[in-house]
Amino acid sequence: MSINPSTLTRTAGISAVVAGLLFIGIQINHPQLDTAFATSAEYTVRQSVKVVMAVLSLIGITGMYVPHAKRMGVLGLIGYLVFGAGYLIMMSVEAIGAVVIPTLATRAPAYVNDVFAVAMGGHSAGNIGALASLNAAMGFAYIGGGVMFGIALVRATVLARWAAIMLAVGTGATLAIPFLPMINERLFAVPTGVALIGLGYSLWHRTPAAGSLPEPPPKSPSALTRLGRSTADTRLP
């Protein structure tokens, strides 16, 4: 199996589609975050899926940006770096949640409840240390980067325009969660998930398969080569 830019780009498209499906799927029937849920097998499975989702999303947006870097311009570069940082932080936060939180749930339940409160956009009663700053950085990078990256994709017109618009609107709409307590905050993940699916499919569909790439045209002889041939011809008897 040969590895080439076309194969990598199509793989990134598939990664984005799977990431979008996982992002939507993990929101379905998600139990309330508390210490009882943190010690369950379902919690570990959901956290592990979130880690995989963050990794696949990062691969996906990288495949969207790299082939179209020139057309996306400075805004695209900044959006990609910030959005990518958001997914890197998300991956680390979810990994901490999968590995550390279940152990602390029985030893320090108050701390775990405070962590969950901050994760859901609320406030902690006690001090949760650097996790508070990490969550804030993740939120800023996810929202700000998603909006900028989506706008850059819209302006570049390299992938499905509707999906790029939905990415910008979906990530930006997350800011409304604190002001809409009557709406399940997990519903705000759906537009971003759909956007990743649409963008990933568009990336995969618009990238030709490795075997279908046209062969480069044969190089014409240079002027010096032609001159040399003509000179040699004049010397022939």
Brief characterization of the structure:
71% of the residues lie in helices and 0% in strands.
Descriptive terms for the model:
237 residues; mainly alpha; globular; disordered C terminus
Structural class: mainly alpha
What is the total domain count?
1
Strand content: under 5%
Order of helices and strands: HHHHHHHHHH
The total strand number stands at 0
Mean pLDDT: 86
Shape: globular
Helix content: over 70%
The largest sheet, given as strand count, sense and whether it forms a barrel, is:
none
Describe this structure in words.
There is one protein chain. The protein has ten helices and no strands. The chain is mainly α and 237 residues long. The termini are far apart.
Lay out the secondary structure.
Elements: H1 5-25, H2 35-38, H3 41-65, H4 69-99, H5 101-107, H6 109-119, H7 130-156, H8 161-172, H9 189-206, H10 223-234
Helix pairs in contact: 1-3, 1-9, 3-4, 3-9, 4-7, 5-6, 7-8, 8-9
